[in-house]
C-alpha cells in the first residue's frame, strides 16, 4: 500500500487545486526531479506576478502629481506698502502696491472688508482725514475695495500742477537731462494719456533737444516708438561721451610755445575784398613811410586817394575801412604775415582764394555751394563759395 502511494507521487486536492503533502519519504530520483521541476515552475510564476505588481506600483508613483513646495508651504511674505499721505504723485503707485499685496496673500485677504480696513490703516495725514470722513459717511467703502480705491483716486489722483496729462505731454522737453531720463518721464505720462503710438512718436521727437533731433534725421531705421526711443537714448549717450572725451583731451593737451615773427606794423590799412596783400619779409609798412595805403603815393591819405574814388566810379572792387588785425599764418613750416578783417556778424570764416593758392593750402569741394553776400546783400567775389 505504501509502495503504491509513493509510485503515484503527490496527489492534487479536488477543492483547492494545490498539491497534497506527502509525508512519506520519496526515494525515487525521477520522482524527486519531477517534483523539483514543478516547484520551480510555480516559483517562477510567483516571481512574474511580483514583478508585474512592482511595475504597476512604479508607474502609479510616476503619474501621481507632485505638489510644488510653494503650494504646500506658506505664501511668500511681502513687505507692507509705505503709508500714503495724500501726495498726488504717489496715489497710483500706492494703490497698485496694495493690489499686488492682496493678490499674493489670498488666504489672509480674501474678504473685501479686510482689504478696506487694511487700506485705511496704511493712510496718514490728510489722506487719513479724508478716508475717515468717507468711512463714516458711506458704508459702501467698508464692503468693496474697488469702490474705496475709486474714492481715493477721485480725491488725490489729480494731475501734477493742475495740468491735464495731455497738456503735460505737449509741454514736455528734454532740456539739460539725458535722453534716458527724458524717456522715463515721457513713458510715465504716455501710459496715462491713452494716445496711440503715432501721436506719441511726434510728441517725443518734438521734446528732444534740437541737436539730437538733427542727429536722428539721418537715422530712419526705427519702425516703432520703442525703437525710436532706444535710438534716441543711444545717440544721446554717444554725443555726451564724445563731448566729455573732447574736453578731457583738450585739457590734457600740452601747451606748445611757438615763436611768432614780430609785427612791426603800427597802423592798419584797409582790406580789399577779393584780394589779400602778402607782406614780404623786410618790407617797411607804408604807415612808417607816410605813404597812401591804397596807391602807395605820398602827399595824401588813403581816404582821399584819387585812385580809390576813380575805381569806385568804375565799378571796381570797393575798399572800405574796418577793424583789421595783423595775423601770422604758418604753412609748410613757413610764416606769412597777412591782414585779417574782424566781422562779428559773419556767418562763416572766409579766406581769399589767391592767398590759398599762394600758400598751397589744400581745399575740398563745397557741395552744395554756399551763396556769399556782404552786409549790403551784394555778392562777394563770384557770389558763391564752391571750395
UniProtKB/TrEMBL annotation:
Xref: SUPFAM superfamilies: Retrovirus zinc finger-like domains
One GO MF term attached to the UniProt entry: nucleic acid binding
InterPro entries to which the protein is assigned, alphabetical: Peptidase_aspartic_dom_sf (IPR021109), Retrotrans_gag_dom (IPR005162), RTL1-rel (IPR032567), Znf_CCHC (IPR001878), Znf_CCHC_sf (IPR036875)
Regions of compositional bias (Basic and acidic residues) in chain numbering: 256-267
Entry-linked SMART domains: ZnF_C2HC
Domain CCHC-type: residue ranges: 292-307
Keywords (A to Z) from UniProt: Metal-binding, Zinc, Zinc-finger
CDD domains noted in UniProt: retropepsin_like (cd00303)
Biased composition (Polar residues): 12-25
Region Disordered, residue ranges: 1-25, 241-270
Name the record gives this protein: CCHC-type domain-containing protein
